Amino acid sequence: MRTPPQHAHALVVGATGIAGSALVEQLVTSGWRTTGLSRRASGIPGAEHVAADLTSRTSLEAALGELRPTHVFITAWSRQDTEAENIRVNGAMVRDLLAVLGPQGSVRHVTLLTGLKQYLGPFESYGVGVLPDTPFLEDAARRPVENFYYTQEDELFAAAAASGFTWSVHRAHTIIGHVVGNAMNLASTLGAYAAIARASGQPFIFPGSLGAWNGLVDLTDAALLADHQLWAATTPGAANTAFNIVDGDVIRWRRLWPHLAAHLGVQPQGPSERPAPLEEQMADAGPVWARLVAEHGLVEPDLSRVASWWHTDGDLGRDGDVLADMSRSRLAGFTGYVDTERALLAVLDRYRAERVLPPV
C-alpha cells in the first residue's frame, strides 16, 4: 500500500482498462483521492469519474479545466490501422492531455504506461529485423522503425520540461489482470478459448510457435504494475526514469500449458510445426459461446469483449525468449514480485466466480 502524499489527487487516464482499473483499485485502497478518466465510470467504490474524449483537445479542456490533479497516470491508447496513425493519434492524446493539465500548475508527476514493443517494434514490424539481446535493458537504443511509444515518450518529456513536473515510463510485458472489454487480455482470451474447446470436445491446442512454446518469457501482473507506478510516482529516486516492469519470475509455455489446461478442464496439446492461430480456430465460435452464455448465465454475451484472439496470437506467435531486465527498479528500491502462474490462475478463478467465464 502506497500512502498518498499530502493533498494528493490522482487522475487515472484509461480507468476502465486492464491496467487502469487495477491502478484505481489500489489508489482508492491506499487512501488517495482518485479520479478516473474514461468513457464510462469504473464502478469502483470511492473513485470519482470524469468523461472526456482523449482525441479532442476541446473535450479535454471542458472536462479537466478545474480538476487540478497532482499525479497523472496515463494508461490509455487507441489502436489505429497503421503505425503512422498510431503515432499521430496517440502522440496527440498525450500532448493535448498534458497541454491542458500542465499549465494548471498542480501536476507533480506523470507516469506513462508503454510496453515491450519499445524493443520488439510496433504491430506492423513486430519482432522483425535485428532485435536487442534479451533480457531487454531500459537503456537500449530506440529501434530504427516508427513506433508510437517513442512519440508518446517525447511528448511526455517536452511537457515535463515545459511545466516542471517529474515523470516515469513503465514498460510492461503482457499484462494479466481482471477487466472485461479490453483489447489485449490474454487471461480471459485463454479462458474463453478453453471453455469453447471443452464445449466442442476439442483439445486445448497451443496456438503459437514452437519458439514461443520452448522459450522463456515473462508477464506483468496488473496489481504489481499498479504498485510499480505508485512507487515511482512517490519515490524521488525514481523520478525521470524509464523502467521495465515484469513479475520477476519467468515461465515456459510448454511447462505452464498443461497446468493451465488442468485448471480449465481441457486436454492440453502442444504446437505443431505451423502455428494454429486463435483467429482461425475460433472464427466460427460465436454460436458455441452463445450456448455457454445461455447455459451458465454468463454476464457478457459479446465474445469479442472477452477474447482478443489477435493479440494473444501475437503474444504466443513469437520466436525465442522475450525477457525484460528490472535492474533499474531493484537498484532504486522496488522489491515487488509476483508468481506468474498463481496470478494467472487466480484471475481465471475470479472470471469464473463473476460468471464472465463458465465453470469447469
Automatic annotation (TrEMBL):
<feature type="domain" description="PRISE-like Rossmann-fold">
    <location>
        <begin position="70"/>
        <end position="358"/>
    </location>
</feature>
<dbReference type="InterPro" id="IPR055222">
    <property type="entry name" value="PRISE-like_Rossmann-fold"/>
</dbReference>
<dbReference type="Pfam" id="PF22917">
    <property type="entry name" value="PRISE"/>
</dbReference>
<protein>
    <submittedName>
        <fullName>SDR family oxidoreductase</fullName>
    </submittedName>
</protein>
<dbReference type="InterPro" id="IPR036291">
    <property type="entry name" value="NAD(P)-bd_dom_sf"/>
</dbReference>
